[in-house]
Structure formats: structure tokens, C-alpha cells
Design a protein that fits this description.
The protein is mainly α. The protein has a domain of 284 residues: 3-Layer(aba) Sandwich (Rossmann fold), CATH 3.40.50. Helix content is 59%, strand content 4%. The chain is built from 28 helices and five strands. Strands 2-3-1-4-5 form a five-stranded parallel β-sheet. It is globular.
């Protein structure tokens, strides 16, 4: 199958303008091209139609679908962006752009486009559900649930609306409401040939009837990858560790195949080495210190590998009256791209970063600071009333020097946990962070070791000061560790922080249920039953373990 490159397509339509004045005939011809499998010529024709008639809904939908089917989602997003720019009153273009933005975790921006689509196209069922899913991912469960209810009332036969109702209720801790939504969905699912017993059993497994759920899971063949992970977590709870590990490994492999998720070790090593080389000690000494913006709340950066305890740390911080929860903000990646545009001259980051040593580039770190804060403002994080907001995007530490350039005095909290406990938890959950490292144990171990080595460079060579919050020490002395962390932040500890599990804030991460529980030691040394399975990766993580003071 061939595909046209956007750079090689003649978008002027020269030589065919007379034909293009007959859109009906052209649509018939393009449909024939698509049916014959000639996607190269079909893409060319569709782009020409949109060049001359940006308002063509059929051509827009067909081109976006063609690109998505070809695995070219980035090109499809460009088409949606161009259509929004040329025809800003197109609800479908806003909707498609909202989908693409939401998929890459630009949730606030994606939600904005969904709202625009609703304002332009009306309260369509699919638009309501797209916005509801986006808001659920942001942790805004009340509005997400209200939209799911509206969608269900608009179409009582909508199975997706009822399933979304069940999901929002479950994440809010309202298990009876979740079960009621699934009860309503059951006859619809049966009529449509859907296997509703899987989500119902998964819901059952999150409550006190988890043994019943496990028995049901064990009786079902051919479980999807995500459900196998859920079954694996229940098998672990039942002390069936060999069976649990098999579910983790095979469930992750199934998801990776379905979603085409691959970890590129060589590229990670190249990228990390280039960052360490660019941010050298001599360079670091030449970079001027940027002043703190006193007019807006400042970020607190929570650093740590996925499943290390960063969600818990954010809940503790955000329970303070002067700290607003930001969640997993994509700002560090946006800042990296911004720096690349200013300095990279077409090369990937960190190319050109050394030019900051020149005096006529000393203003750029100020732009980095204000660029980040501008993004924070669009997310509502710089509103008055607090002194800080949190940024806990996993693996922000990869671009730690860039964040420190923009915010020399910002609190930075590095969350540490036993690397083997982290690896077990990573294998038990579907996580996309870290260049898709979480789908194979050797890849997760490689990423953990590479990040640890990079952090050692930042600490020992660049002398970037961080506050270490050690998960095991926090569990042993919650009050003392909380007080020490707040001293680093520059605020007095508040009593409510010791009851962070009572907060009504929903943490939209896989840890949302755990952070509703009081502190306990149940997640410490969870690696021990898996010592045999972890043995092959011990050489990879031995240095990281030693650096954190961990032993077997």
C-alpha cells in the first residue's frame, strides 16, 4: 500500500481545476480510488479538494481516516489543525483535533476543542461522550458524570454512555452507583453481543468481593491484555504469584502488540547521552540565574519513576491550603520543544543548548520561564489564592536542567522507592510513560537504570539540589517526612496533610484507589515473591539500587 507524503503533493490542483469544479464527480472518483486500495492517489485527490474547498466534510473525514488507518496520526492531526485554521466554524474539525490532543495527554487543550465543537455543532451524543471522557481523564468526575447522564438521557440505548457512567462512579468511590449503571447496560450489551461480564467482574474486583471476581476471571478464556493485568493483580492479592506474573507478562505483551508500543533502547541511550553531554559542568556555571516571578504561584516539581509514590506525594502536598494540584502536566515536553525551536536549528533537543552560554542568548531562560507559566495559566493553575501548584508528570527528571534553568528556586522533590518494587508495580499496570518502557521487564529495568544514571549526573556534576522523599521512610514516619518535605517547600505543615487520604480530590492515575487509603506498609517489599522472575534484570538495576541504599 502506498501513501503520499504531504511534502510531495501538488496542492494547487493545477491541470485539474475544471474537474475540481464538479465535486460530486470528484467524490465518486475518490471513493473508487479508496475502494481499489490506491491510497496514494486518493490522498492526493482529498488534499486537493480540501485546498480548494476547506468546508468539505466528506473529504476532511475521509482524509483523516485514511491517515489514521495508515498509522500516520501526526499527519492526521496536522490536517485537523489546518482545517480549524481555515474553517474555524467547523465542529467536526474541532472534534477531531480534540481527539488527537487528548490522546497525547494535552487534555485541557483537547477539552477546549470538544467544547467548541459542542458550541458549533450542538450537544451531539458523540461530542458529549468525548468531552466526558476527556474530563474523566483530567479528574473532573462530577462534570464528566453529568455529561454521561445527559448522553444516556439523549440516547437510552447508548452502551458507551452507561459504561462511562459506571467508570466515573467507580472512580469516585460510589460502587453501588457503578453497579447500577452496569445493570442498566446489561440488556444493551447482550443485544449488541458485547461481553459486559468483563467490566462487571473488574468492578467487583475493586471491592470487598475480590475473591468472587477472581473466581469469575479464572473461568473466562481469552481475556484482553488490560483485563489480564487486572486478574494478575487479584492473583497477587491471593498470593498466587506465579500465576500473577504470567498474567503481567502476557497481558503486557498483548497490549504492546495491539497498540504497537515499542521501546527503543538505542535511541534512549543516545538521547540521554546527548543531554548529559550538553549539560556539562562548565556550561552550567555560565548560565545566568532567572528571577522568580512573584506575581503568580510557582511550580513544585515532583520527580520519580512511575509507580514510585509520586501520586501519593502530590496528594500530601495538594492537601495544603497554599498548594494547588496540577497533576501530570505535559509542560516539560512542551518546554523541550520550545527550546528546540529557538536553538536547535532543525536538530533534536538538546542541540544548540550550549548557545545559552553566549551573552546575547541570556534572555532565553526568561522566555523558558514565561512559556511554562503561560501554559500553566491556560490550565487555570496561576489563579490567585495559593502560592504553589504541583507538576508530577512522570519522568520530568529527564529534562530537569531545562526546568531548573526556568525555575532556579522552585521546590523539587525526588520520590524514591525500592527499584524492584517499582518494576513489579510497572509490570502490573498499563503505563505509557518512559518511551513505552513498561511493556517488557528488561525495558522497564533499562529505563529505570538510565534515568537513575542521568539523575546522578545532575546531582553530582551539575549540583542540582533536590529534596529526597524516600517512600519506605515516609511509610515509617509520615509526620516527620511530611514536615521535612514542607520545610523544603517553604511552608508550615498543616494537619490535613496527615489525612491526605480523606481529600475529595480525585487523582486521575492508576493510583487513585491507593491514595484514598491511610498510609500502610502493604506495598513495601512486594518484589520478594518475584525474586526469581526479577533475577535476570538485577545487573541492570544494581547501581540504581546501590545509589538509593537498597539491598536484596
Amino acid at each position: 500500500m502506498k501513501f503520499a507524503s504531504p511534502e510531495t503533493i501538488d496542492v494547487t490542483g493545477a491541470g485539474r481545476e475544471s474537474e475540481l469544479r464538479q465535486p460530486a464527480a470528484l467524490e465518486i472518483k475518490t471513493r473508487a480510488l479508496l475502494e481499489s486500495g490506491d491510497t496514494l492517489e486518493a490522498e492526493t485527490m482529498l488534499r486537493r479538494i480540501l485546498r480548494l474547498a476547506p468546508g468539505s466534510p466528506w473529504a476532511f473525514d475521509a482524509l483523516v481516516q485514511l491517515l489514521v488507518d495508515a498509522g500516520r496520526e501526526g499527519d492526521a492531526e496536522i490536517v485537523a489543525r489546518e482545517t480549524v485554521a481555515l474553517a474555524p466554524d467547523r465542529a467536526d474539525a474541532h472534534s477531531k483535533l480534540g481527539v488527537f490532543l487528548s490522546r497525547r495527554n494535552a487534555l485541557v487543550e483537547g477539552g477546549w476543542h470538544f467544547r467548541q465543537a459542542i458550541a458549533l455543532g450542538g450537544r451531539d451524543l458523540h461530542l458529549l461522550l468525548n468531552l466526558a471522557r476527556n474530563l474523566k481523564s483530567q479528574g473532573q468526575l462530577a462534570e464528566a458524570e453529568a455529561l454521561a447522564i445527559e448522553a444516556s438521557e439523549k440516547d437510552p440505548a447508548s452502551l458507551p454512555a452507561l459504561m462511562l457512567l459506571a467508570e466515573t462512579a467507580e472512580q469516585a468511590g460510589r460502587m453501588e452507583a457503578a453497579e447500577a449503571a452496569l445493570d442498566r447496560a446489561a440488556p444493551l450489551a447482550q443485544a449488541q453481543g458485547e461481553r459486559l461480564h468483563l467490566p462487571r467482574t473488574a468492578l467487583l474486583g475493586r471491592g470487598t468481593r475480590w475473591r468472587e471476581a477472581l473466581e469469575l476471571f479464572d473461568s473466562l478464556p481469552d481475556l484482553p491484555g488490560v483485563i489480564r493485568l487486572a486478574r494478575g493483580r487479584l492473583r497477587e492479592k491471593a498470593q498466587r504469584h506465579d500465576d500473577a506474573w504470567q498474567d503481567y507478562v502476557e497481558g503486557k505483551a498483548a497490549i504492546a502488540r495491539e497498540q504497537d508500543r515499542r521501546y527503543d533502547r538505542a535511541e534512549v541511550e543516545r538521547h540521554f547521552a546527548s543531554i548529559a553531554q550538553a549539560f556539562s559542568a562548565p556550561f552550567w556555571k555560565t548560565v545566568p540565574k532567572v528571577a522568580t516571578r512573584a506575581d503568580v504561584p510557582q511550580p513544585i516539581f515532583i520527580l520519580g519513576f512511575p509507580r514510585s509514590g509520586t501520586t501519593m506525594t502530590e496528594q500530601v502536598l495538594a492537601t495544603h491550603s497554599q498548594i494547588r494540584a496540577g497533576g501530570e502536566l505535559p509542560f516539560a515536553l512542551r518546554l523541550r520543544d520550545f527550546a528546540q525551536q529557538l536553538l536547535g536549528r532543525g536538530l533534536p533537543f538538546p542541540a544548540g543548548i550550549g548557545e545559552l552560554a553566549a551573552a546575547d542568548y541570556h534572555h532565553l531562560p526568561i522566555l523558558f520561564r514565561d512559556f511554562y507559566l503561560a501554559l500553566a495559566e491556560t490550565h487555570g493553575l496561576t489563579r490567585p489564592g495559593v502560592r504553589f501548584f504541583t507538576d508530577k508528570m512522570p519522568l520530568n527528571e529527564v529534562y530537569l536542567p531545562l526546568l531548573r534553568l526556568a525555575f532556579p528556586d522552585a521546590p523539587m522533590i525526588a520520590v524514591q522507592r525500592h527499584p524492584l518494587d517499582i518494576l513489579v508495580s510497572v509490570m502490573a499496570h498499563d503505563l505509557t510513560h518512559g518511551f513505552y518502557c513498561g511493556y517488557r521487564l528488561p525495558d522497564a529495568a533499562h529505563q529505570l537504570a538510565a534515568v537513575s544514571q542521568l539523575m546522578t549526573h545532575y546531582r553530582d556534576v551539575l549540583r542540582i539540589a533536590l529534596h529526597a522523599l524516600v517512600y519506605e521512610q515516609f511509610i515509617a514516619d509520615q509526620e516527620g517526612e511530611t514536615a521535612r518535605m514542607m520545610t523544603h517547600v517553604g511552608l508550615e505543615m498543616e494537619p490535613a496533610q496527615l489525612r491526605f487520604h480523606e481529600s475529595d480530590r480525585h487523582a486521575p492515575t492508576p493510583s487513585y484507589a491507593q491514595v484514598r487509603q491511610p498510609v500502610h506498609a502493604g506495598s513495601i517489599a512486594k518484589w520478594r515473591p518475584y525474586a526469581e522472575q526479577l533475577a535476570p534484570v538485577l545487573p541492570l538495576v544494581r547501581d540504581a539500587m546501590a545509589d538509593g541504599g537498597y539491598k536484596l
